[in-house]
Amino acid sequence: MGKNFQLRKTQFAVVLAIFALGIGAQRLKSQERVSIETLNKAIALNNRGMALYQKGSVDEAIALYRQALEINPALPEALSNLGTALDAKGKDDEAIVDFKRSLALRPTDAVTASNLGLALYHEKKYPESIAAYQQAIALNPKFPQAYNGIGAALAASGNTEDATAAYRKAIELLPRYTDAMNNLGAALLTEKKWDEAVPVYERALELEPKATDVRGNYATALQNAGRIEDAMAQFQQIVAIDPNDAHVWFELGHLQYKQGQLDNAETSLKKSLALKPDRAEVEFNLALAYQDQGKIAEAIAEYQKGLALKPDDAHALYNLANSYLVSKDAAKAAVYFQKSLDVQPDFTEALIGLGAAKMDAGDLDGAQATFQKVVAAQPDNADARFNLGNVLFNKGKYTEAADTYGESIRLNPNLARVHYNRGMALLRLKDADGAKAEFKEAVRIDPTLVAPN
User: Fold this and answer.
1) Within 13 Å of residue 413, how many CA atoms lie on the same side as its CB?
2) Mean of the per-residue pLDDT values for the chain?
3) Does residue 106 fall inside a structural domain?
4) Which of 3, 30, 267, 302 has its CA at 20 to 30 Å from residue 140's CA atom?
5) Does residue 416 lie within any of the structural domains?
6) Are 5 and 224 in contact (CB under 8 A)?
7) In this predicted model, what pLDDT tens digit does every residue of 77-114 receive, in sequence order?
8) DSSP H or E segment with residue 224
9) Separation in Å, CA 186 to CA 163, 191, 356, 410, 417
């Protein structure tokens, strides 16, 4: 129930190509028709664009970079910075073209090679992204952002081992690099190295305590390491920082439910839905919280809401059927058990539930046929034999019932209710000693049961 907290989006420090006014004229000696004044004007436009970009005015920056390139189409700084701005706008395909043009003019520019790797990563062109980052690292072996970037591309390609090594190198070069730490933790989570991921996230949070995405991943690591209470505490810290995070309220509610904190789970799941309605998974989990509290009408309503969004969820259909069974509506229970089986024909629990619903509805022949079907498919299913025994008992077939209960006990001797019911069948068969022995065993297993006089 519930999904892992979504991993933080891989982040890289995008480095602008920064050049002082006046540089570049020497590089363009071959362009004799362009005056030094004109060249410097292009560089000034580039630097003004860079200043606007750093202030967050990306569109204005793009306009200035393009003006610079109209004056000097061979200005690699402006091409690189234009690519960076286009990448920030999500125009990765255009950014890739400009980065490549810049690198063609200045192939030793590690920053542009790294930013090209990022744009290719965004386009999910992972082999090309890796190659671009490799170029950046070859040009500058002490470039932490390039190591972080290649780690992300390697991880996206399924090579978490090399990704982990790349992230560690990035952190070695820049010990306070929290993005690389978060990405390293994500790679370790992928490898199910929960205990290794935990201290990585703890170090990142020492440096950046309000990073809710890092804290969410830390909570995921703690949860998978079996430290549920600690994971809950982290999710609670996140909602204290950002009470409008619907996903975290859901994760918190999920863990509270697992810990039996049903009231708290109900509250958290309701908050999640209030912030972001119409999510089937949250509706289903809230329904479970209601169901376990005995709030059957509320549970049914939530299951129906969720199923309106996701009508083919076999387990939700099964749980809704159980809610109807508890509310003594055997007919509706049978309908939803059957719907669950239509979605997942091998869902044994739903087939057992269907048999129980038929028995509650008085269709003993139908119930018997259903349980016999389960037994035929799963001869070692003790619960199915127990339920089949109940049907036979209700049909007055006490010998067959006693034998069927006996088979269930053979498969699982620790089911108190089976011993008790077999005792009742033996009483009907006038086997007082056998019945007494079964009642005694039932009470031994479950002292809350009381043997009949």
Assistant:
1) 4
2) 91
3) no
4) 30
5) yes
6) no
7) 999 999 999 999 999 999 999 999 999 999 999 999 99
8) helix 212-224
9) 10, 9, 45, 47, 47
Q: Which of 254, 222, 248, 246 is nearest to 235 (CA)?
A: 248
pLDDT tens sequence across 409-423: 999 999 999 999 999
Cα separation, 80 vs 63, whole angstroms: 14
Question: From CA 94, how far away is CA 50, in angstroms rounded?
Answer: 18
Burial class (CB in 10 A: 0-12, 13-18, 19+), 212: buried
Confidence band of 2 (pLDDT split at 50, 70, 90)? very low
Check: CB of residue 21 under 8 Å from CB of residue 47: yes
**Structural domain boundaries, residue 431:** 391-453
Could you tell me if residue 324 is inside a domain?
A: yes
Same domain, 397 and 442: yes
Q: Give yes or no for a contact between 72 and 34, defined as CB atoms under 8 angstroms apart.
A: yes
Please tell me the predicted confidence (pLDDT) of residue 451: 87
Cα 120 from Cα 131, distance rounded (Å):
10
Q: Which two tokens stand for residue 317?
A: 């259909």
Please provide the DSSP assignment of 249-268 as one string. Answer: HHHHHHHHHHTT-HHHHHHH
Number of domain units in the chain: 2
Rg (CA), the chain: 33
- Tell whether 395 and 447 lie within a shared domain: yes
Statement to judge: residues 373 and 395 lie in one domain: no
CA distances from 7 to 11, 131, 237, 271 (A): 11, 25, 17, 22
Q: Looking at residue 321, which CATH number applies to its domain?
A: 1.25.40.10
Whether 295 is in a domain gets the answer: no
Residues 403 and 427 in one domain: yes
Kindly state the tokens that stand for 171: 């952190």
Would you give the distance in Å from CA 142 to the centre of its chain?
34
Determine the pLDDT at residue 19.
36
CA–CA distance, 101 with 277 (Å, rounded to integer): 46
Domain termination site, one of 378, 403, 431: 378
Taken as a whole, the chain contains a residue count of 453
Q: Are residues 341 and 395 in the same domain?
A: no
**In terms of Cα–Cα distance, which of 352, 350, 354 is closest to 332?**
354
Beta-sheet strands, E only, within 118-238 = none
Task: State pTM to two decimals.
Answer: 0.78
Distances (CA, A) of 304 to 277, 286, 294, 358, 398: 14, 12, 17, 22, 40
